[in-house]
Design goal:
With 375 residues, the chain is of the alpha/beta class. It is built from 14 helices and 15 strands.
Length: 375
């Protein structure tokens, strides 16, 4: 893609950001509101020497990108809530085998089939806890089209750097909304791009799951001469199954700690007018756009209100919440998900301003909720 200014939807920006980050394999299955990502990748990947394949379902899609990643290629898929529900078993497999992949979830009204073309934010907890067991994952959530392009590069960097699945959250409003954005020259993007660590020892001297000091093992690719045994069973540093308490303790602790101990490097949070705020509204994605306007309106009335927008949703940026001794209003398009996390770490009152799905709150609705809480 040539550098310059473009007019794209969030879905197109996600696809182009992925290609700019080096993604060269996409496997997916159509589902609203993410289908335009697949359409764009089907067009663009052959132009850059990549491969696109439409799979039979979402389960096959994530299995395909896990396999592709083991060959050394950067791989992704995209879906919505019902597709994520089907992918969760293999998300757990990717966590256990430490495979860098990116999964876009364009959230829509839920549960079940819900509102296929309308916004929801009901997959926040699913992004972290969808699969079974104790594990950490990275999830990021933009609020505009420019951020969607920029953060997709970060998503691949996180996946490659920490050998972990990254769930890139969109919502139906952002996925289908068109805005202008600026694409920098590819040589500038390349300076930001991170690729996975490769083994420095030759085959026969390398344990494929032996971590470096950062707790992340270098990753050989299939076909490079290394003996690769990738299993969802509890395994040792050779990758061989070792079904013991000690092996489980060692492995699962590292899978969690490689993210937890680098959380401050991963966190991205927008703080808007929070320095003197007595009340902070906590909101993400498209909902945060309405909240920002409501905060400006509240300030004009003399109300000391700010906005905190988590760009990194997981690992949850709890230190940002903890540092303000204020009350929080959590505005989200669900019946309370981020609310529970804010309530866990806030020192003041925490109230929920929910929406069941279909549309974001208007700034006027958020302003009224702010007034009620202050009063």
């Amino acid at each position: 893609m040539n550098a310059g200014r473009y007019f794209w939807s969030g879905d197109i920006a996600a696809a182009e950001g992925a290609i700019a980050a080096g993604c060269r394999f996409y496997a997916g299955y159509p589902i609203t509101p993410s289908s335009e990502i697949a359409e764009r990748m089907a067009l663009r990947l052959p132009q850059v020497g990549g491969r696109f394949i439409e799979m039979e379902d979402e389960i096959g899609s994530i299995a395909a990108i896990i396999g592709a990643s083991w060959t050394g290629v950067k791989a992704m898929t995209a879906t919505a809530g019902p597709g994520i529900s089907l992918m969760n078993e293999n998300i757990g497999l990717a966590v256990m085998t430490e495979v860098p992949i990116v999964i876009v979830n364009a959230m829509r009204g839920a549960p079940s089939t819900g509102l296929p073309t309308l916004i929801g934010q009901g997959d926040i907890m699913q992004a972290k806890w969808g699969s079974h067991g104790s594990y950490e994952i990275i999830s990021i959530y933009p609020s505009n089209v420019q951020e969607t392009f920029d953060l997709m590069i970060d998503a691949f960097n996180y996946a490659e750097r920490y050998r972990v699945p990254v769930i890139f959250l969109l919502d139906a409003l952002l996925a289908h909304m068109y805005e202008k954005l600026d694409v920098p020259p590819q040589e500038e993007i390349d300076k930001r791009v991170i690729n996975r660590k490769k083994p420095t020892k030759p085959p026969g001297e390398t344990l494929i799951y032996q971590p470096d000091e950062d707790l992340v093992p270098p990753m050989p690719a299939v076909g490079e001469g290394y003996k690769i045994h990738a299993t969802g069973l509890t395994h040792n540093e050779k990758g061989h199954p070792e079904l013991t308490v000690d092996a489980q303790e060692k492995l699962v602790k590292r899978l969690n700690d490689k993210i937890r101990k680098h959380a401050r490097e991963i966190w991205k949070v927008e703080e808007y007018l929070t320095d003197d705020a007595k009340l902070i509204v906590f909101a993400a994605g498209s909902e945060a756009r309405a909240v920002r306007t409501a905060v400006d309106m509240a300030r004009k009335e003399g109300l000391k209100v700010g906005l905190m927008r988590p760009i990194t949703v997981w690992p949850f940026p709890h230190e940002y919440v903890e540092k303000y001794a204020v009350d929080y209003l959590v505005s989200e398009i669900n019946y309370g998900q981020m609310y529970h996390m804010v309530r866990e770490y806030a020192s003041g009152r925490v109230e929920l301003f929910p929406g069941m799905g279909g549309e974001i709150h208007t700034p006027q609705q958020v302003l009224r909720a702010i007034r009620r809480m202050i009063e």
